[in-house]
Amino acid sequence: xxxxxxxxxxxxxxxxxxxxxxxxxxxxxxxxxxxxxxxxxxxxxxxxxxxxxxxxxxxxxxxxxxxxxxxxxxxxxxxxxxxxxxxxxxxxxxxxxxxxxxxxxxxxxxxxxxxxxxxxxxxxxxxxxxxxxxxxxxxxxxxxxxxxxxxxxxxxxxxxxxxxxxxxxxxxxxxxxxxxxxxxxxxxxxxxxxxxxxxxxxxxxxxxxxxxxxxxxxxxxxxxxxxxxxxxxxxxxxxxxxxxxxxxxxxxxxxxxxxxxxxxxxxxxxxxxxxxxxxxxxxxxxxxxxxxxxxxxxxxxxxxxxxxxxxxxxxxxxxxxxxxx
Length: 325
What we know:
Layout lengths: L2 H40 L6 H26 L7 H17 L4 H24 L5 H20 L4 E2 L3 H8 L1 E2 L2 E2 H19 L1 H11 L1 H6 L4 H27 L1 E2 L7 H11 L11 H20 L4 H24 L1
Antiparallel strand pairs: 1-4, 2-3
Helix pairs in contact: 1-12, 2-7, 2-8, 2-10, 2-11, 2-12, 3-4, 3-5, 3-10, 4-5, 4-10, 6-10, 7-8, 8-10, 11-12, 11-13
């Protein structure tokens, strides 16, 4: 395959994906609307403004980690270390706050720690030539172990009010986590859809050989993707610590599954090459609305897991059917 052919193939794949993305987004959004209508009709408390804000606040961390997972899934990989990264970033920032380090520096340190975990993941995948599943499974366990070790398993509480306002405060009646969530959606959505970084990310999952032949820096691009995943996980970790005014070392446990679920429901393919941040946002809210609606109707948390599991399987099933068409 010549370099010119590779470049042409990359552009063609990118254009074909645009129509698929639009169809997938509309399909997922329609499903969300149906859920909203059903729960609004079955429970009068669901359709209130306060409840919608509550759903948005609870879903914000899922949206954030799903953004990073979407980037990784598009390249054909997966990041299982997201939950552990949430805990480490929150704990590290909290420990520095307890040591009277200025809050902005503490927040920056938490974000840097998330990026570093992402860089380690990406480097092991690129230079170690190891499968992303194995790499991030290993770092998931190691990072969680580090977090538990430095805290001795004890949550860090007594955080300053200036930090807690990130999670508990509001601006113009809208909780602050919602603003942070929307800012990340816009920034990383534009980055994926409108920039060279986004085109390279799609090309890695659509046709790896064509991407390499067309001049894409494979190593740099993959490491950058995993660093993005680590960064948004750290943002989620800081928000969660600020919301509960504490940084438990067990924070984010199981959240990697929510990230995969939101991404897949939103249209990201487990086989790589497809996914959008807008779709991921809707996918995360499908999970958030499902949980909230089922909670309000008194459905057992155990049954809720079954329902969400079925939704994930259905999303993957329809993705496979779509690819065969």
